[in-house]
Specification:
5 helices, five-stranded mixed barrel
């Protein structure tokens, strides 16, 4: 009877020794820097970039509503809109007013380096002293500019006038000082205090702007802003989307990296198991083969005095000169057992 022994195989699917280190791969400076950059970007997207665009959209929407309301309302005397010190309320900007008084042409200035409708232009700023004694700066309109020289300006009427204009809030103070050249004072922004110091005249805090044709002293009227909101709303929503997608993208890449590392670990574990099983099977087959040779009656020990050559000839006589096939022998013996 033939006996056999076997070596127990290692259980398949065992945890790979490197799998536990998958998370340690992310504890590297590169991953830390990437995560920090993404989190900082998302923070600024939510706290600065998106509010900046959404705020501009809100301001433009409010301005458009004020303009529409102002031109649906009849003009009123300037004294009803310009309060103490000639200041107007934010909600009253773009309201139409009537200015009655006289232009002060000696204190006239021009605004340079500000195109109008994409064209080089010069805006003419002339103070007007109202019948109540208040001095309000009036933007009379614009004229085309050619080169660095100031073009010829049509003078304002010298007598009493009644002008329809829109109320405008003061601009911020320019960072460049006014320039006087050829007897004309040039300024770089519409700030009444800034202009008043240049012409030595105290004026109201806010100003008026002629925006309709055929007004006394008017030039080419300043255009009313377009009543559209632009793309600020979509830009704001895009920054919010970017702020959400950036951390989500980082999480996806971490998940994909972990998944790939686990897949590689499983494949390596299966390969090691297969190699160990192959070695165990080979060892078991070798031991069975050796025992079969020992217990086979056809291969009994040679009689004393028989030489190695005689033993080889005896084996050749039994099995022939063809190469022995041990695996065929094992298969035949297995069939005989069963």
């Amino acid at each position: 009877m033939t006996t056999s022994t076997s070596v127990p195989r290692q259980a398949a699917g065992r945890p790979h020794p490197n799998r536990g280190g998958s998370w340690r791969a992310f504890l590297k400076p590169g991953w830390f820097l990437a995560a920090a950059a993404i989190l900082i970007f998302s923070y600024f997207a939510f706290t600065f970039l998106a509010p900046w665009q959404l705020g501009k959209n809100h301001d433009i929407s409010e301005r458009n509503e004020r303009i529409e309301k102002a031109f649906d309302t009849d003009p009123v005397p300037a004294g009803e809109i310009f309060g103490p010190n000639g200041q107007i309320r934010p909600e009253d900007e773009w309201r139409r007013v009537i200015l009655s008084g006289q232009y002060l042409s000696d204190a006239e200035t021009v605004l340079r380096m500000r195109p109008v409708q994409g064209n080089p232009a010069v805006q003419v700023l002339t103070p007007l002293k109202t019948d109540s004694g208040e001095v309000i700066l009036v933007n009379r309109g614009w004229i085309p500019a050619e080169g660095a020289a100031v073009p010829e300006i049509t003078p304002a009427p010298s007598g009493p006038v009644s002008v329809e204009a829109v109320a405008r809030r003061n601009e911020s103070t320019p960072d460049r000082a006014p320039l006087t050249e050829d007897g004309i004072t040039q300024v770089y922004g519409i700030d009444t205090d800034y202009i008043g110091r240049a012409v030595r005249l105290e004026m109201s805090e806010d100003f008026a702007q002629i925006s309709t044709p055929d007004q006394p002293g008017g030039l080419t009227p300043m255009p009313i802003p377009k009543l559209d909101r632009g793309s600020h709303l979509s830009y704001g929503l895009q920054w919010i989307a970017f702020g959400v997608m950036a951390p989500a993208g980082l999480a996806y890449f971490i998940w994909a990296e972990l998944k790939e590392r686990r897949k590689v670990g499983d494949e390596e574990a299966e390969l090691e198991d297969a190699q160990q099983d192959s070695v165990s099977d080979a060892a078991a087959d070798g031991r069975r083969h050796f025992k079969d040779l020992l217990w086979d009656d056809d291969l009994s020990a040679p009689p004393p005095g028989e030489t190695h050559r005689e033993l080889s000839r005896s084996v050749a006589d039994r099995y022939g000169s063809a190469r022995r096939d041990d695996y065929a022998k094992f298969a035949r013996r297995s069939q005989e057992r069963f």
